[in-house]
């Protein structure tokens, strides 16, 4: 018998419940019950422009109707709550500060207009899309001056470009991705809300998730342990 597993399903409440949510929840539910572990429902509602309160209610009702009962969630509680990401923003900001202090992240002051010009130029020369790292090299005093002036900015992950990122997938085996092909993803948006790339990793660690069951297209967003 395997050790007790902690798994989660983390839908976004932005519309009608998706069949993919039920599909992954089924695997999560079976895996948790088989190992004597825990099944968590986490609501990823950091995209406030698309949030739909009715959608969240439909998600919980649908899972119950299907018999996919979860051990922790926004409506049942649990030891690792809150289970809505919009209620965990203080947690994410603390982790962002730790990343900034350790050099694992940096503040980016590029305007939407510059980023659109960058994407347009990349498309024109058929180059892979991605941030060009302009703000990676800002001096501490330059960053401090911009922050003190209240210039809108995001926080980006400082991906080590000279390393290979590796992890083990239970179906594919060892997966390796070269660091220079990974974009410096935005972790914290200018509105203070985290992106998936930050909140997903922080929550999985703090909620002690042991196994992530996800669709094939999400393999490139896999986190290390």
How do you describe this structure in short?
The protein has 225 residues and is an alpha+beta fold.
Strand-helix topology:
Elements: E1 6-9, H1 19-35, E2 38-41, H2 53-65, H3 89-102, E3 105-108, H4 112-124, H5 140-148, E4 154-157, E5 164-169, E6 173-178, E7 186-188, H6 196-206
Structural overview:
The longest helix is centred in the N-terminal third of the chain and has 17 residues, at 19-35. Strand 5 (164-169) and strand 6 (173-178) form a beta hairpin. The strands form 3 sheets. The chain has a 3-stranded antiparallel sheet with strand order 3-4-7. Strands 1-2 form a two-stranded parallel ribbon. A two-stranded antiparallel ribbon has the order 5-6. By secondary structure, the protein is an alpha+beta fold. It is 34% helix and 14% strand. It has 2 domains: 6-87, 3-Layer(aba) Sandwich (Rossmann fold); 89-194, Glutamyl-tRNA Synthetase, domain 3.
Comma- or semicolon-separated keywords:
225 residues, Glutamyl-tRNA Synthetase, domain 3, 34% helix, 6 helices, 2 domains, alpha+beta, 3-stranded antiparallel beta sheet, two-stranded parallel sheet, Rossmann fold
SSE sequence, one letter per element: EHEHHEHHEEEEH
What is the number of helical segments per DSSP (H or I, 4+ residues)?
Answer: 6
Strand order of the largest sheet: 3-4-7
**Shape, principal axes of CA atoms:** globular
Instruction: Work out the radius of gyration.
Output: 19 Å
Class derived from helix and strand content: alpha+beta
CATH topology of the largest domain: Glutamyl-tRNA Synthetase, domain 3
By CATH reckoning, the class of the largest domain would read Alpha Beta
Largest sheet: 3 strands, antiparallel
Number of domains: 2
Which architecture of the largest domain would the CATH scheme give at its second level?
Alpha-Beta Complex
Beta-strand segment tally: 7
Can you identify the CATH superfamily of the largest domain? Answer: Glutamyl-tRNA Synthetase, Domain 3
Mean pLDDT: 91
How helical, in percent, are the residues?
25-40%
Task: Note poorly predicted spans.
Answer: none
Q: End-to-end distance, in Å?
A: 22 Å
Strand content: 5-15%
């Amino acid at each position: 018998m395997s050790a007790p597993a902690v798994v989660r399903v983390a839908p976004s409440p932005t519309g009608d419940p998706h069949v993919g949510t039920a599909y992954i929840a089924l695997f999560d539910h079976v895996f948790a019950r088989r190992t004597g572990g825990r099944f968590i429902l986490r609501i990823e509602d950091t995209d406030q422009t698309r949030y739909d309160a009715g959608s969240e209610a439909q998600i919980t009702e649908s899972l119950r109707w299907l018999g996919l009962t979860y051990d922790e969630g926004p409506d049942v509680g649990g030891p690792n709550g809150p289970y809505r990401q919009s209620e965990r923003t203080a947690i994410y900001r603390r982790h962002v500060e730790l990343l900034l202090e350790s050099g694992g992240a940096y503040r980016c002051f590029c305007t939407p207009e510059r980023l659109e010009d960058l994407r347009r130029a990349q498309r024109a020369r058929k180059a892979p899309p991605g941030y060009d790292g302009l703000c990676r090299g800002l001096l501490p005093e330059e960053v401090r001056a911009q922050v003190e002036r209240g210039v809108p900015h995001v926080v980006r992950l400082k991906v080590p470009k000279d390393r290979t990122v590796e992890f083990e997938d239970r179906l594919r085996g060892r997966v390796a991705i070269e660091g220079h092909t990974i974009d410096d993803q935005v972790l914290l948006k200018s509105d203070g809300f985290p992106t998936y790339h930050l909140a997903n990793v922080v929550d999985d660690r703090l909620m002690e998730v042991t196994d992530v069951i996800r669709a094939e297209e999400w393999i490139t967003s896999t986190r290390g342990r």
